[in-house]
Amino acid sequence: MASPKPQIPATVRRLESPYRWLERFGAVAVLAVMAGLFLTVRAAPAPAATQGFASTDFRLEAPSEATSARNGRITANVATADALEVLGASQIDASAAATALREAAPTRGARLRPGSPFIAYFDETGPDDMPVLTGVSIRIDPKTTLAATRREDGTYFASVLSAKTSIALHRISGKISTTLADAIQDEGGTRAHADTFASLFPEDSALAQGGRKGERFDIVIEMIADERGNFLEAGDLLFAAFNGEKAAGSWYRYTPEDTGVPEFFNRNGAAGDEFLVRDPVRGGEISSGFGNRIHPITGDMLLHAGVDFRAPTGTPIRAAGSGLITDMKYGEGYGWFIRIQHDRGFETVYAHMSAFAEGLTPGRTVMRGDTIGYVGSTGSSTGAHLHYEVLRNGAYVNPMTLELPTGRDLSRNASAFNAFKVQRDVIDKLRGADPVGPAAGTTQTADLKATQQGSR
What we know:
Elements: H1 10-40, E1 41-42, E2 68-74, H2 80-86, H3 91-104, E3 117-123, E4 132-141, E5 144-150, E6 156-162, E7 165-175, H4 180-185, H5 191-199, E8 216-226, E9 231-243, E10 248-254, E11 263-265, E12 285-288, E13 291-294, E14 301-304, E15 307-310, E16 316-318, E17 323-331, E18 335-341, E19 346-356, E20 365-366, E21 371-375, E22 385-392, E23 395-397, H6 414-431, E24 442-447, H7 452-455
Antiparallel strand pairs: 1-2, 2-3, 3-4, 4-5, 5-6, 7-8, 7-24, 8-9, 9-10, 10-11, 12-15, 13-14, 15-22, 16-21, 17-18, 17-20, 18-19, 19-21, 19-22, 22-23
């Protein structure tokens, strides 16, 4: 005989309604959180193919037992475990995989940054037909993947995978239809390539603002690819030719063996323009010159060992010449500053910066015209400006009156010039030796085995 259904006292029934309201509220809150995660972790679109290279994929990193793969891309600050749960992993698996990834990451405590693509692999034939997370692949940077694989005991093993890379030449040639940067970026180059290109033709100020429609350009850049031919990232600008209204010519990037500093030379081996530019901030107004002056903060009469260029905070600062970054830090008075060592005993200093350019570190070489930082007012400063110093053999000199040496002429040294010609001829062969190149949109690629050493 069935047991009688227990009767709920009236006093208890009266309390039931608010508790159920709280349960419903909690259920709604959970659904809202999950909906929010689905909005911030969304399936990554298929990457657009770059002409000359296949798009990047992670298929060779997939666990062999996986029967499905689910792509994602973090677009907000979402924890790794939460992102994996949204794609279908159990809470236990997601937490264990996230912990393994975190412990194996090159930077401890690393999170999935906004924009980071990842793939979660699942075995769809798990217990109770529930999918089992068998692996995770996260692209940390173009050359590095962080991967976690499930063991038989349910734990996860993570490791860092570095792609085997090669360097190829990639040519982009055509006419400007909107801006120079747009034309270069549309074919796989970068905005930095356009900035370097413009710095090689300083006589045409309009080129830095995008150039004029119909002007012809031709560039050759390094393209870094993995062993499957997938495009990873663009490298250095190796060649630039321009046929414009106010400027024309061609320049080849080459690193002389005796200096180790890359420079641009014409086809006859002569470096262009002055050894150092006098105005690292384009359009900056000189607010204080070189020499003795009353310090605006201390009131003391002191040597002003450089030149101040007034400009809005955030204005790009370019390297005055090719050289090696020896200092990059915060200093008393200088605020955030960079010091660059150049050839022939010269040094330049750039002070009061608001920020450094991305990717720069002490020990890295930069080229004349490269953006190295941004105007600010850090340190002993009364307003946004760049304090620019030039030293020759350790002594301060006036950047505005200094007789600066011209660029090097490789033709005066037979061995140096012959080594330069090897790289020049590889580029010319790729270009078909055209002065500026064919119609808009042309792209070509070629191996860069003979010139890898000289281009660095």
